[in-house]
Amino acid sequence: CLQTDSYHVKSLYRIGVSLYNLERYAESKAVFEQGYSVKTLTNGERKAFLKYINKCKSFVKDTPEVGNIISFKNNSYLNASEAEKKSDFAEAISIYKSILDVVPDDKLSLLRLGELHFHAGKYEQSADYLKRATKKYSGEFIYLESLGDSLEKLSEYEQAAECYGKALKLIDANEELEKKIKIKQGNALYKWGQPQRAVNLFMEVLEKDESHFEGLYCYAIATLQHGTIADALQIIIKLLTIQSENKKVKKLFCSVLKDESNYDILLEQIGSDLPGSTYAYIAMVAKEYGAIQSSIKLYKKSLSDMPDEASLALNLVHVIEIVNDYEAAFKVAREFFKNNPTLSVGELSCEIFYNAIAHMKSIFTPLPDDLEVETINSVDESIEYTSDELDLLALFCTVVKMIYLSGNLEILPILCELIDPTREGRNIHKTTIRNEHAYFCCIKQLLESRSVHLDRDLPPIYIAGDSHSLTPAWMTITYNNKQHLINPLLVTGLKCWHLRPESQFYPKENFYNVVPTAPPGSDVIFMFGEIDCREGILISVKKYVYESIEEGISVVVDIYYNVLRELKNRYNYNIYVHPAPPVIDVTRKVVKIFNTLLKEKINSVEDMVWLDFFDDLLDPDNANNFNPRYVLDGTHMNVDYIELLERELNK
């Protein structure tokens, strides 16, 4: 190849690597320098060539002099620091590794590589770098503490406790640092199976500082396992007052409240006559990490104290949606409208909206022939809505969504006509209620292209998905030579990532409350994954959690597949897997990779079916674009795509 093209990049790289592996470093360095001079190199290729040039420099005669090494290190530190500021940890790691190629025992590089791998969740690599550091710099505190942190994550609790013990001996007159390390050592001892030694360390710290956050947190865990729920809750509540947004405390709190019998114990601790806003905050925390039944009770208590707060009614409705009880959620909203007739957004008051649904004793009540509804006019767009008015508008929109999902479509054009004048010409998508508004807009557009009269006697085929499942919902298709009605199983905002075993996030609760409502043996189409393809995986690659987009997607696909396997085994569903829709321009590249890997996974088994129409969703004239035939609102597909779904189901 080089005889034909002396600057053929791949050939230069492979020859350089081969020479390096043969320990012919000078020749290898010359080849890599020749490759590095090619002007058309990509950034990735340039980094690869530079990496080997730096490796070779440590073996050949023209290794930089001491002054040049110092200059090289300082420039590299600066570049790595800039990369870290941009959260480009993959780039920072590459730079620190290049320093070690020249200076194998560089203190800062070993430390930062250990810390960066730790934050990326790569604990084995982190421990390896930090072990190198502690071997070389055994008398330095920071390396021992960081190594202890990595070993604790690797469940090597005895060794972690030993590292923290050594670190304690190096602390000189720094009480705060001493407390911090004692708590870490106590935590390692507790997990190692030495609870008494651990509690003694926690108490040593708390006797000196009764509000020490980590001390209280670890003591709360010990109290949960070896004390009483009441005592543990008392400590956890104190932690929430110190750091109300701390995620690990919220998770601990919700792990207690998931047991509904602990709800009364909570009220005993906090009291039953607090302001409604206090119960609302606790309800919000309970919802976030899956203590849904406790959250419902707390929101009800809050709303009873503040019955005219639309935000509380909205949040209560959303939490009840998680348990898939649209009937109960609808009744909460309906009662709120009835009890607050004068509340309004624009010209749309609760009284007017209530009058439109007053006949609906149930969310399934059919539309009467003689329903009369007031006409609503638009309001001045320059007048901004207050947060209370936005919350009320969100509640109106959410009622439309719930009725749509229940299949009672005939009333919806009337409700949409009521709501429209309050939102037209406004940038609602830039407000706190953008999600509720987005659902409303999508449903309104879908209603314009379908019949609102459903034949509920048709056999069902189910589609479980995020908001993309709104499009095929309640459509009639021919399947196995019979007409079927597509019944939606909506799981709002679900990422496949949320379904991993350790997750406590509420969309997972929603998933397991919704999907199993399809009877055993049902035909179920699964339509998840598009939300995973947005920013999460790209950010994780940048932060070095994954070394490539493909690796990150493979992890997500495995989580998704394992859940489908679990459902198949438990409910004997006939599982069809829908490709993630490639509608959004900025995520289409990732969606393509996701569908390629998901297709491979599903096609590798015989008892699940991949619905192979992804290529049809791309523009036939330019596969980098979405097929304009199926455009709806820039995020979702229109109903015309159902022909593709029907075609694949019948193959």
Topology:
Blueprint: H1 9-21, H2 25-36, H3 43-57, H4 66-85, H5 89-102, H6 107-119, H7 123-136, H8 141-153, H9 157-169, H10 175-192, H11 195-208, H12 213-226, H13 229-242, H14 247-257, H15 263-270, H16 276-288, H17 292-305, H18 310-322, H19 326-339, E1 344-345, E2 348-349, H20 350-357, H21 387-406, H22 412-423, H23 434-447, E3 460-465, E4 476-479, E5 482-490, H24 506-514, E6 523-527, H25 536-542, H26 549-571, E7 574-577, H27 588-603, E8 608-610, E9 618-619, E10 622-626, H28 642-649
Parallel strand pairs: 3-5, 3-6, 6-7, 7-8
Antiparallel strand pairs: 1-2, 4-5, 9-10
Helix pairs in contact: 1-2, 1-3, 2-3, 3-5, 4-5, 5-6, 6-7, 6-8, 7-8, 8-9, 9-10, 10-11, 10-12, 11-12, 12-13, 13-14, 13-15, 14-16, 16-17, 17-18, 18-19, 18-21, 19-20, 19-21, 21-22, 21-23, 26-27
Largest sheet: 6 strands, mixed
Number of helices in the DSSP assignment: 28
Query: What share of the residues lie within helices?
Result: 55-70%
Q: Could you tell me the radius of gyration in angstroms?
A: 30 Å
Mean pLDDT: 93
Unreliably modeled segments = none
Shape assignment: globular
N-C termini distance: 47 Å
**Largest sheet, spatial ordering of strands:** 4-5-3-6-7-8
Briefly note the structural class of the backbone.
alpha/beta
3D architecture notes:
With 651 residues, the chain is an alpha/beta fold. The protein is built from 28 helices and ten strands. Strands 4-5-3-6-7-8 form a six-stranded mixed sheet. α1 runs antiparallel to α2, α4 packs antiparallel against α5 and α17 packs antiparallel against α18. The two termini are 47 Å apart. The model has no long low-confidence stretch (mean pLDDT 93).
